[in-house]
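Bench notes, bay 3.
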Amino acid sequence: MGTSMPESLYQNWQFAIEVNGFDVALFKKGQEPKTEFEEVTFAPAGSLYDQKVAGRMKFGDLTLEKGVLANGSDEAARDWVRIQADVNLGVGALPSMYMRDVDIVRYDRAGNETRRWTLHGAWVKSLEYDDLEGGSSDNTIEKITLSYQYWD
């Protein structure tokens, strides 16, 4: 039996979240896309058990975390939410105004791109910040949960 070298695996080393209007360097944590299929069951006549097939595809929400600049100049997430609010209030904008493509990019240790996912039609499902805590020296983190149409 011969010996073989172990296969190299992707490492959670370097990544980037590319969203129009955001500073890529501020993102510290994110997720990769999740795809799921609905389960469709049916019982054909005379069958002793249900048969299952794959139904519609569903794409899970993603949560991204990024640092908040101390000078308050980073308004990208709040601006994105404001556009969505304007559309919902019916003040002259369409959903296409707030839906964006978001790229999630992985890099190897040398900084070469190894993988890229593009989330199409993404929008902010929720925006939240860390709890306020007196005496803490932790950086404030902004958490953005995105919903999107599909990825490729």
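Next record in the batch:
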Amino acid sequence: MLFDSHVELLLDAAVAFVNELTDGERRGKPFVAPKGGELPPAATRAVPSTARKLPDLLPGEDAEHLAHAARVMRGVFEAMEEQRVDDAAEAVNRLLRETGARPQLDRVPGEPWAVHFHGSDDSYSIGWTAGCATALALAVGSELAGRLGVCRAPHCDRVYVDMSKNSVRQFCSGACQSRVKAAAFRARRAGG
């Protein structure tokens, strides 16, 4: 295990927020992030399904905040991909300050005490942003910083956290990996 399960959940959430709530390219096609009335359902879908007490639909204000945070988090992944650790740290620190992130021991009935991360208030958007920012801080500030990446497939800029044993992941999804392998195969066949 590279990260503890709570940090892993928060890093997965950061990936989901960035990939669902920021403009760019996805699997070879332009991707326009949801806006207006489409944003609250998209933000709600991006929250991990294991989250407790998830409302049926996040309020627009929370969805807007998560979209803003996702744009900042995207900068962290891009900076790490380009080995600009100082820029990544600056963006993470910005999110930590904006949310008032703080650790706290929490206990689920029947489970042991565990460190969780909270924000300055209990709103969904502040809480999730504070947690994601703290998890990104733990990644950027450790030997695991190189595990944050941006898909290397052509025309895809979705992000990922490499949880593989050997640190070999290069793509956001199996679909992008297959797309690149198929293109390489076609190129070899055409050239030989």
